[in-house]
């Protein structure tokens, strides 16, 4: 028993040293008691080659990357088809592993890209040729309307579980997650537990994620490479958008009617950085006669009236906000603050009808609890704020209108507490791009 606990104790000690060095050991607000942290183990009937932790993400508009883990060697193959139990197509990918601080070695991480796929269709698939587990997923539609589920700071607690249950009932097409996934915080088996917990949803709809501060996971003098576990486990389609890094990328969906920017709050973003230059080039390629909507995801919010994490996104805002404003980005979604807040359309701190709507959705279910202390008086640009767990839904109805709604977890029932219709900036004559 003692030898089993030693790696965890060492990791906790390293985490304490790391946090102390960063000057962030305490928080300036009191959190209410969270629900219990869950530990999702491998199914009793699984063996060392049973596919587990299965999740999918989009690659282009009609291909999907399937990622899964086996404990021992197994083929990196995905067999798939449009009928249950019948797989007319197959794709072979690659396998990798990673080690962390000499205390943990991951299972065999397999990934394979499948397609081209038909839009708005259900595909059945199996991984590594294993007949014991069959999965299915639905591809996004080729045109509007489309529905996104949006959650940040998810974690793996009882609140996480209720959030996932509510999302599973929403008939969404794709999930967007602006950082802080597992809250492993150096304890690598927690990544495995998290991926098993979310597998029922993450294997059935594309999950598009970007990193948060809890994905950095470095230990001074021991693990100096940031984002090592995140990059190994969540390969996003950065190559397809000509990004040099898995930490920032973009993708199109709904037949190209929507372009989504997945930006990195914890990698360089100043004017000389790769991210800044890539973002300029990515937006310059857009054909706005086809791309009707622009959305962006970051982790640390640029606007925030909560006492928690004040100013954490300010440097990035100063560096990048003008680019997003000029491109007429319709909405920016953030996490990091463990609460919900919806702002008006803003630019440079002021309400601006041609600026993006800013929404903080860092309330998925993390183990640290809620950020329930707000600044008073409430700023005029802050239209709705509440410290409760929940999730968001973005229903893009057509080329000009989308419905945003926030669903609070209240006694395990999803309650719609805030909603607003959004009009695309591209359709507003007053917001035509100025030269």
From TrEMBL:
Lineage top rank: taxon: Eukaryota
Domain Purple acid phosphatase C-terminal: 355-418
UniProt-annotated stretches for the region Disordered: 24-52
Top EC class for this record: hydrolase
Naturally occurring in which organism (per UniProt): Dendrobium chrysotoxum (Orchid)
Residues in the signal sequence: 1-22
Domain named Calcineurin-like phosphoesterase: residues: 146-340
GO molecular-function terms, A-Z: acid phosphatase activity; metal ion binding
Gene3D superfamilies for this protein: 3.60.21.10, Purple acid phosphatase-like, N-terminal (2.60.40.380)
CDD domains: MPP_PAPs
Official protein name in the record: Purple acid phosphatase
Residue intervals of the Purple acid phosphatase N-terminal domain: 51-139
Pfam families linked: Metallophos, Metallophos_C, Pur_ac_phosph_N
Comp. bias (Polar residues): 37-52
Highest classification ranks of the organism: Eukaryota, Viridiplantae, Streptophyta, Embryophyta, Tracheophyta
Entry's EC annotation: 3.1.3.2
Record keywords: Glycoprotein, Hydrolase, Signal
The family this protein is said to belong to: Belongs to the metallophosphoesterase superfamily. Purple acid phosphatase family.
Catalytic activity: a phosphate monoester + H2O = an alcohol + phosphate
């Amino acid at each position: 028993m003692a030898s089993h606990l030693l790696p965890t104790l060492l990791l906790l000690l390293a985490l304490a040293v790391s946090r102390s060095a960063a000057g962030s050991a305490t928080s300036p607000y009191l959190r209410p008691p969270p629900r219990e942290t869950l530990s999702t183990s491998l199914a009793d009937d699984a063996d060392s080659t049973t596919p587990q932790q299965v999740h999918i993400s989009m690659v282009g508009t009609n291909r999907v990357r399937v990622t899964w883990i086996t404990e021992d060697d197994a083929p990196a193959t995905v067999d798939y088809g449009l009928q249950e139990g019948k797989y007319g197509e197959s794709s072979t990918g690659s396998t990798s592993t990673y080690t962390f601080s000499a205390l943990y070695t991951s299972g065999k991480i397999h990934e394979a890209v499948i397609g081209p796929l038909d839009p708005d269709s259900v595909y059945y698939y199996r991984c590594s040729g294993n007949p014991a587990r069959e999965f299915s997923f639905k591809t996004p539609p080729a045109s509007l309307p489309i529905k996104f589920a949006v959650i940040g700071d998810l974690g793996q607690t009882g609140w996480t579980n209720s959030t996932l249950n509510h999302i599973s009932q929403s008939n969404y097409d794709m999930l967007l997650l602006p950082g802080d996934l597992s809250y492993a915080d150096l304890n690598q088996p927690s990544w495995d537990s998290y991926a098993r917990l979310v597998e029922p949803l993450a294997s059935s709809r594309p999950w598009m994620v970007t990193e948060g501060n809890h994905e950095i996971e470095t230990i001074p003098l021991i693990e100096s490479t940031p984002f090592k576990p995140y990059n190994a486990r969540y390969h996003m389609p950065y190559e397809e958008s000509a990004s040099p890094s898995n930490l920032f990328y973009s993708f199109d969906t709904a037949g190209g009617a929507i372009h989504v920017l997945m930006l990195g709050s914890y990698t360089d973003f100043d004017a000389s950085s790769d991210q800044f230059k890539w973002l300029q080039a990515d937006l310059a390629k857009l054909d706005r006669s086809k791309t009707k909507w622009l959305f962006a995801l970051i982790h640390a919010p640029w606007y925030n009236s909560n006492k928690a994490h004040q100013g954490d996104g300010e440097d990035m805002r100063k560096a990048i906000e003008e680019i997003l404003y000029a491109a007429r980005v319709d909405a920016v979604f953030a996490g990091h603050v463990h609460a919900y807040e919806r702002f008006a359309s803003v630019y440079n701190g002021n309400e601006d009808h041609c600026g993006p709507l800013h929404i903080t959705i860092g309330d998925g279910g993390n183990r640290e609890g809620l950020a329930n202390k707000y600044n008073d008086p409430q700023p005029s640009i802050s239209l709705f704020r509440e410290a409760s767990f929940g999730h968001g839904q973005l229903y893009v109805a057509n080329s000009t209108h989308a419905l945003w709604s926030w669903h609070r977890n209240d006694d395990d029932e999803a309650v719609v507490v805030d909603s607003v219709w959004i009009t695309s900036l591209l359709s507003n004559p007053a917001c035509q791009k100025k030269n």
